[in-house]
Amino acid sequence: MWRRILSTTSASARHHFVRSSNNTNTNTNTITNLTINRFLLTSSTSNVSNPFQTTAPLFSQQSASASASASVGKLRVEDVMPIATGHEKEELVASLQGRDLLEMNHPAGPFGTKEAPAIVQSVYDKRIVGCPGGEGEDEHDVVWFWLEKGKTHECPVCTQHFKLEVVGPGGPPDGHGDDHH
């Protein structure tokens, strides 16, 4: 909001200065341009504090070099975020190793047929999948369904076939076996 006010003020001030200086000679125009620049500089660096301060990126060059020297050349999760646990820690470890832990969340590939179904990766034995259809005119509203290990699923709208490929430890997504019911 403050930037918008400052830019509006700066634009109206520039218009006012330029309009008032149109009837003067060249030396006055030069002085007016200097005045405009000085006014814009002071108005853009006013004492109004911005409530939204930008923060440094998580893996900035400074933090990487500082923590690398502390841990003798190898960056650890504890150096980046000491309180990271669970899935957040797994994501940080993967990003420090240069791989994307969640690359399986955006599957892309050819249209799945019965002979060659579209492969969707999962860490668990089943996963919710959304089918947007084919490209162009074959697109449809996203249809959501459960995709299970060992079974193919056919989209009821576009007849695209999907198959689940387990790339992790497997098991049910809720962490409980089905035998506890």
UniProtKB/TrEMBL annotation:
UniProt-listed GO biological process terms: mitochondrial electron transport, cytochrome c to oxygen
InterPro entries assigned: Cyt_c_oxidase_su5b (IPR002124), Cyt_c_oxidase_su5b_sf (IPR036972)
Pfam families cross-referenced by the UniProt entry: COX5B
CDD domains: Cyt_c_Oxidase_Vb
Keywords for this protein: Metal-binding, Zinc
GO molecular function, one term: metal ion binding
Positions bound to Zn(2+): 131, 140, 155, 158
Family per similarity comment: Belongs to the cytochrome c oxidase subunit 5B (TC 3.D.4.11) family.
Descriptive protein name: Uncharacterized protein
Lineage of origin: Eukaryota, Viridiplantae, Streptophyta, Embryophyta, Tracheophyta
